[in-house]
Amino acid sequence: MDKLATIFKNRKVIFSKLADFGFVKSKTLYKYTKTLTDSGFEITVTIDKRGKISAKVVEPEVGEYTLHLTNSSGSFVGQVRAEYEQTLTEIAESCFEPDVFKAEQTKRLTEYVREKYGRELEFLWDKFEGNAVWRRGDTNKWFAAVLTVSRRKLGLNSDEIVEIIDLRLPPEEMAGLVDGKRYFGGWHMNKKHWYTIILDGSVELEELCRRIDASYALAVK
């Protein structure tokens, strides 16, 4: 996989942020141009209305430069490659957001947490890109985790991969909630303090939001 694909893997563009970064909009696409400091070459990044991104480096008076995309070595090629990748990384971090989770409830909950608490999902594990957490800004404690697992891992008779949410609950309330049908012992968590819900509509969105609020309130110590 080339570096462009790697940097933007599982990310989607936030079109409203492109202009602030320096992209210029035309009828069919958004375009960003920058002169690379060390080499004097010019990088052009384009994003179409579907969110597809492309990039090229041009050597003035010569044309497109591609050695930075190969295994070629040398200090100059390395400089161009480093600046190219740094520019793409800045765009990814400033104008894109993670697009790992596909379930409708996951997307709705992401919007809910963003609007109410101003928190974004954090992807902490490079090897497990289907796992992320929300944590409070003041205590830095997790109040929810969103993960991808098979139903069988939760004790159900299916290998279907689903998205789940882990939430906090007081230990004295756990036994009365976990039923192995809609509510499960916390996946990869301390089951004394965490429980799991599959984000497949088995629990209504309104209830999920209430339970996120309760979990947020518990993440204070």
Query: If you compute it from the alpha carbons, what radius of gyration comes out, rounded to the nearest whole angstrom?
Result: 22 Å
Distance between the termini: 42 Å
Q: Given the C-alpha coordinates, what overall shape results?
A: elongated
Major β-sheet, in short?
A: 5 strands, antiparallel
What is the tally of helical segments? 6
Helix content: 25-40%
How does the helix and strand content classify structurally? alpha+beta
Residues in β-strands, percent: 25-35%
H/E order of the elements? Answer: HEHEEEEEHEHEEEHEEH
Neighbour order of strands in the largest sheet: 2-3-4-5-6
Uncertain ranges: none
Average residue-wise pLDDT: 93
**Number of strand elements:** 12
Could you characterize what this model shows?
By secondary structure, the protein is an alpha+beta fold. Helix content is 28%, strand content 27%. The strands form three sheets. A five-stranded antiparallel beta sheet has the order 2-3-4-5-6. A five-stranded antiparallel beta sheet has the order 8-9-10-12-11. A two-stranded antiparallel sheet has the order 1-7. A hairpin with a 6-residue loop joins strand 3 and strand 4. It is elongated. The model has no long low-confidence stretch (mean pLDDT 93).
